[in-house]
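can u pls check wat happens w/ prephenic acid
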Amino acid sequence: MGVPRYAYLGPAGTFTEEALRRVASPDEAEYLPQTDVGSAIAAVRSGAADYAVVAIESTVEGGVTATLDALATGVPLVVLREVLVPVQFTLVAAPGTRLEDVARVSAHPHAWVQCRRWVAAHLPRAVHVPATSNTAPAALLVEALAAGDAGTLPFDAALVPPGAVATYGLAPLADSVADNASALTRFVVVGPPGEVPPRTGADKTSLVVHLPDNEAGALLAMLEQFAVRGVNLSRIESRPIGDALGRYSFSIDAEGHITDERMGEAIMGLHRRCPYVRFLGSYPRADAVAPTVHVGTADADFVEARAWLARLRAGDAS
Ligand SMILES: O=C(O)C(=O)C[C@]1(C(=O)O)C=C[C@@H](O)C=C1
């Protein structure tokens, strides 16, 4: 078998590539840059890649809907690992450009929303020119500079990851561009289902859940499956299923591993109550924070309770 092949949002220098470098260095893996998240995930489904690395959540914008939607339907894939990357941007432009010359800024939509206040304060005239990734405009700028026609570009400056400044040999116009200096983006490595990564004691489980139609309290009943078993949720968001108005799919991250008794019981509860449950994997938490275990919800409590029930069922009510 050759080296593992990773599909990810390119070109070189994206935050996604930085996340990938933390998973597998370029000399032990094949990097397959793609133009969008959907193509990276499709590459795993078609067998063109073994894994995809995709952004799934940011501290500023919440869930990355392209990723959530691509994983919620289609050939099942699972999350194997998560990686957190700090996100700040550098504004780059052709040499000689001054801040006051900048009226059009190229940026990935997720980058733009993470720099809105900075842009309003420093470039009040600037409009957004959407880019397919954080480094796509850097590559265009380099090409245009080499061809001597930077003036024909559809933007005056671009927001790029700081690491891309050196990769593309560009001159920064402004550094540390961010509305939230501690912004993080969470990336996940996804692959075909197989063995579940072993429990570490600080794990996350991701799920997609549909609710029964027209049932008062269905959302509450779904949440209770977690609450009564002491399972904390770290993210829940609704996405339209897409076939009719009012039909929503819930994308959930829960603290714990599928082999934890409380998580297993909660997922069985979802299976009994909800028309559709997709398991998107159990994997180690990047921050290695173990969940708080509430009274009566440790593995031993479930095991003991089951043994007690078995005794009752066997007629031992003493
Ligand atoms: O990986 C990149 O650089 C991207 O352009 C993608 C992406 C994202 O989709 O969230 C990654 C990190 C930042 O949050 C902004 C954009």
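The mean pLDDT is 96.
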